[in-house]
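Archive entry. Fields below.
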Amino acid sequence: MSIDSLFRPFQLKTLNVKNRIVMAPMTRSFSPNGIPTQQVAAYYQKRAEGEVGLILSEGTVIDRPSASNDANVPHFYGREALAGWQHVIDAVHAKGGQMGPQIWHMGIMDNHHSGWVPPVPFEGPSGLNRPGFTNGSTMTQKDIEDTILAFGKAAADAKATGFDCVEIHGAHGYLIDQFFWESTNLRTDGYGGKTLTERTRFATDVIREIRKQVGPDFAVIIRLSQFKPSAYTNKLAETPQEMDAWLQPLVDAGVDVLHCSQRRFWEPEFDGSDLNFAGWAKKLTGKTTITVGSVGLTGDFFGAFAGESSQPSSLDELSRRMDRGDFDLVAVGRPILADPNWVTKIRTGRTDDLKGFSKEALVELVME
Ligand SMILES: Cc1cc2nc3c(=O)[nH]c(=O)nc-3n(C[C@H](O)[C@H](O)[C@H](O)COP(=O)(O)O)c2cc1C
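PREDICTED_STRUCTURE:
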């Protein structure tokens, strides 16, 4: 099957991407005290050189005192960190790539295995990371307002630094997702509620503030997931109607692209159709969508965290869905983490040279 559909250019607002392949955001923890180093810039530059169309950075935290549980996760605030990011985007542009930071607030977290803790307790909608696990405080109205402003400031800084777009991390059980999920959002004020639509209020306020700060023409992406690391099979939306009630408010608030995170892109979202999450999101909203999850690999990323290796696999099913118009862009994580030249190898048919993925790739910034 032809992979030509992966190599068509893509244009939307500030995005002028040479192909449909996006590097998925992947936390690396190689930024001591939150400052991205020259080595981090070189790591992303190698991916731009290797023909990745759009790079999404690892999650990088906004200016809230307990936004992170890890001292080596990069900040997206402060003079030194932003200077580090300036090197990153300049390095990526020098090789013809495009890039956006994934701006992140982790919300209520487990303490990091390093023993490092932030200067104040974690904060979240109801102090909960998952049912029965509290590790921090419930956000006040003022905390919420300040956090919304901090997301807006980070997006404005992304634009000012020269990034091509910004991605809001609204997935995987972190702060914004803690507001979406009824099990972690027990609030009785305007940020809680029985319906998923009511629980989108925090996300929509974040999107509106970002839109206000970056203007109408800067591309804004939000990443979403049905699953949580503590609940693999969770579904925030059980039906297409519920999904519409979740996504439409985000679109109305001004987001351009829905990045639909799945563990395995080929899994249908609902019974009765083979459409995946990105397929449904596009069908329901008409917006640009990104799919992700085990593209080109045999095993999924939860397996990778458990130390499992994955072998290269066929792109036929991906191409079938892409040709059908299910989604616009395809994010690829571990293959590009492990091999900066993955895209070039795919484009030129050098499939025998594909590396797959093994856990050794996680402990370094792979440059070759
Ligand atoms: C080491 C690692 C770190 C990750 N960090 C993030 C992150 O910071 N933000 C995020 O949204 N997803 C993160 N993910 C999930 C990936 O973006 C992606 O959705 C997942 O790996 C599935 O894609 P893949 O099967 O192509 O690897 C991470 C995945 C890995 C393997």
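CURATOR_NOTE: The radius of gyration is 19 Å.
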